[in-house]
């Protein structure tokens, strides 16, 4: 065999070996890429599953109902209050909480959760009482807003009492009840800040604490002036 032939065979062998190595490398790379893609998919799924927790669902469900009660009271105050300051405050409460209800309802729908409270969710609010705002009665379902009272009154009883009042008497009782109502909202929002995982829900909870704490101070000032 001539030296030229030896060189040709050596070159061919080198090409075959190189091709084989490339194929092996490509296969390993493909497997690695597939493994990486699978890991990424698993991570994405885990991330998607971690976007909200039971605490977020409970917060949204309960706060929707709580806001609805506040709006009912505020709308009545816009009509009945004797003080222009009280009417203005009531209008601001209604205007702020309506869009928040729509926002929280949108979250629940996007999360695939019921908009109404789930009695089996088990988000226990018992032990989170505030002065004049009894949260006990949420111990069983964690969401049953019928158990929430303001100065010992349910939402329905509070509305019935307000409907029987006018002028300064209405203003005083509305402010007393709304202070208690806001304290309950702050309690729920603080619990969401401790336990929630959905960034959008904890952000809203922070705003609820800030805004409603400020409104509580305003209402106490108005009460002092009556």
Automatic annotation (TrEMBL):
InterPro entries: DUF305_CopM-like, Ferritin-like. Keywords: Signal. Residues 1-22 form the signal peptide. The keyword Signal applies. It comes from the Bacteria. Residues 56-223 form the DUF305 domain. This is Uncharacterized conserved protein, DUF305 family. It comes from Cellulomonas marina.
